[in-house]
Each structure stands twice: as C-alpha cells, then as structure tokens.
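Entry details:
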Amino acid sequence: TIKRMPSQILAVREFPGFATDKEIENQKAALIEAMASNPDYAIADTTSFRVLQWNPPYTLPWLRRNEICTKVLPVAEVSVPETAAAAAVAEPVVVEEAAEAEVEVEEEDEGKAEE
C-alpha cells in the first residue's frame, strides 16, 4: 500500500557494513551526539529512529550502504510538543474511566454468583 505522508525534516547518518544491533546503537549514539551540537534543529523523539538498508544481502560489507534517520524539528518547536504530550498523559480522565469499567465487571460477576 502506498500512503501519502506529510513532509518532514530528517537527520540522516550514513554508514557502511552490516547493520547489526550493536552497529545500529553506535550509529544512533553518533547521530544523537551530532544533533546535540546543532543550534538550529533538535531531535523530535529520541526513541524513534529508522534504519534503511539499501543493498541486497550478497553485497560485500565494505560496499554496503546503510542509513539511520530520525525526525527533527526547529529548536523553537521541540519544547512545545513535549509539554503538550506531558499534559495529555497527566490528565486523570482515562484512569477514572478504567476504574468505572472494573466496577461494572465486578457487579456483573456478583449477579451471576447469586443465580
């Protein structure tokens, strides 16, 4: 399925060889470190990265091209989504709905026990 996605700005780091778990972690750390010194852009979500592997499996390791990327935002916009996300998580309405659902289940169970 092909989906149209909104445009976004990505920070990308290219690396050769095989994309092992250890190598991906090393490249992820290098990308985060490089973006930390960038005065214009910051990583939008430090838990969301993509690994792109461009070659077929039989390509020699030194000829392989891999990339790791993540979405970045202008520095002025990064703090706003984090604050909004924290406020949405702290909202107690979801907890109250879950508690009400548990009460309803308990009441139904008690009715079955009496029959």
